[in-house]
Specification:
Distance between the termini: 34 Å
Radius of gyration: 21 Å
Helix content: 40-55%
Oligomer: single chain
Strand content: under 5%
Order of helices and strands: HEHEHH
Number of helices: 4
Number of strands: 2
Strand order of the largest sheet: 1-2
Structural class: mainly alpha
Length: 137
């Protein structure tokens, strides 16, 4: 979902937020003039996602699409705002929008797997192997 948006991928890589081959991005720290997007004040000793879980969902998507992703505490308010803005342009504005898009992604993958399995079974059936009998239900 995130890889399908060139603007988002460009921003993520430019900001060293994601990478497929550089694990050192996970060790970056915020600059002194940057503020973490996480809320550390509402509940002392804990960090809260002030987006009510929306950015945690985005972070999960990034982790599925890229090998290395910064941890939540490494995101600045500015970065989170820009990432949300880019996703908003895609029509993904709420957690429900993200859930629906994730469900569609899973459905599409499942259909692809089903087609592959059917194709393999048809190839086996066409091979005319004596000891193999494939029937459909």
């Amino acid at each position: 979902m995130s890889r399908d948006n060139p603007e988002l991928v460009s921003y993520l890589k430019e900001q060293r937020i994601v990478s497929d081959n550089d694990e050192t991005i996970t060790q970056d720290r915020l600059d002194l003039d940057e503020t973490s997007f996480l809320d550390y004040e509402s509940l002392p000793g804990f960090s809260l996602d002030p987006t009510n879980g929306k950015f945690e969902m985005i972070h999960r998507i990034l982790k599925e699409d890229f090998n290395y992703v910064k941890t939540l505490d490494q995101f600045s308010q500015k970065q989170v705002s820009e990432i949300e803005s880019i996703f908003d342009k895609q029509g993904l504005k709420t957690i429900d929008d993200f859930r629906k898009a994730m469900d569609e992604r899973v459905d599409k993958s499942t259909q692809g797997i089903e087609k592959s399995i059917v194709s393999v079974l048809e190839d086996i059936d066409r091979a005319g192997l004596m000891d193999v009998n494939i029937t459909s239900t």
